[in-house]
Amino acid sequence: MVDTSRLDQLGAALYDFIDSQFAQPSDGPTTVAFLPGAVAVRPDTFYQNGVVNPALVGTWLTTVVDRVAPVLNSQFSAGGATAGDIMTAVTQLAAPAAPVGSDTANAFVRLKEESAQAIGPVGAPKEIRTAPLDWYAPDRVASWPGYQSTRSVTAPGPDASDQPPSDAGPDAGNQSLWSWRRDDGSQSDQAAAAPATNGSDSDENPPAASPTPVGASALTLTMNYFQVAMSRSGWWNDVLLNSPLWYLPGERAGSLLPGSLPVGTPFGLPVTMILTANVEVSGQWTGDDLAAATTSTHFGPWQLPTDPFGPGEVSAESAVLSIPDMQVIAFVCQMLPVLPPVSDPALPAAPPRQYQPFPGTDFFSPGRRSSVIAAMHNRLVAVGCGRYRSTVGEDIWGSGDQASYHSWQLTLGYQGSAADGIPGQASWDSLQVPFVTLSP
Fold it and tell me: Could you give the 3-state DSSP secondary structure of residue 125?
C-alpha cells in the first residue's frame, strides 16, 4: 500500500521547499537527496585547547560530504567513492577516445594535465571549502531561518498495491524514510554479504527492524534550517569530467562510479548541506507512535534523542517530539555524467545482455518507478508468483510487488527474514528478468 501518512506528506512538502530554495543548477543539474541516517554535528569536536582546529573540520567534511553515491528515491544511498578518488583516477589514467593528434584529443590532454597539477600527488589532501566558514558555530543557530508545515489528511483507503504514489512532491510514497525506524548499525548491502544462517541464502538481505508507519492524524513540523555551500574549486574539474570522448584503459563506460547498479543510475556529488536544529513535531499522536518512539533511533531523516517526547509520561494528544541538536538531513547534489563516458576501444564489444543485472536492494523502495520494475512484474506473473490486484502502475514498486516477490522467495526455499519480499542478488539472478533499458 502506498504510504499517505502525515509524516510522508510533511516530507514531500519539505523536499519541495528545499528544492525550490537551494537546488538551483550551477555547474550542472542538481537534485535534493535526504540522508536516511542524518549526521549529527557536534561543534565541540572541532575545538582543540579552546580554539577551532581547521584540520578537524576538514576531516569531518572529507568523511561526511566528499562522497559520490547513487541518488535513488530522493535518498543519498549508502556507500560510494570519494570525489578525490574519482578525480585522481581520471587525471592519472584517462585517455582521449578521439584520434591521436586531433584538436579534441589535444584539448583533453591539456585539461587532464592542468587537473593533475591542481589535484597534486596521490593521497594529497583535497580541501572542501564552505560558505560560511564557521557554519557549525552554535551561536549562529539563533539567526537561522524558521520553517513550519502542517499536514492533516484522511486515512488511506483500501490497498491499491500498484497505484501511483501521491503527486505531493517527488517520491511521496517513500515510507521507508518517512516513518519510525530503527538502525542497528548494519546497512542492507552489508547484511547481504553476511554469512547465511538458519539455512537461508547469504545473498538475501535480512533487514533491521521494518519501518513503522506514523499513525498521527495531523502533524505540524517547526524547525530552524541552514544551508552550507561547498566548493571543491582547485581540484574538481567539471569540464574535464563532462568531456564526451575519454575512457579508462581496460574499463567499460560507467565503471568508475561504484556499485553493481546499471549504467545510467544517477550518481550525485554533495554541493550543499542542509542543516536543521530545534526541530519540533506536534500533533494528534497515537499510542503506537509513543511506543515506537521508545524503540526507534530515527524519525524521518532525523536521529532521535534518548527521550524524544521528554522524560516521564506524556499524553498522545499533547506530546511534542523534540530534536534540538544540529543535524545534516539532506544534500543538494550535483548529478554526474556516466564516468567514463565511453569504453576502452581495445575491449571486445560487450555481448548483448539477456538478463537484467541486479540493481541493488536500495533500488526497491516504495514509489520507485522504472521499466526494470515492470519487467520484474511480468516475470513474477510468468513463473506463477504474481500476487497483484491489478496491472495498473506495473512499473512502480508497491506492496503487490513485495507480496509477489515474497512468493518467489518462498518458491526458492527462503524462510523468515530472508523471504521479506525485497529482492536479493541470488533470488534475482534465479528469476532471470529480461534485460531492459534502465528508465529513471
Answer: coil
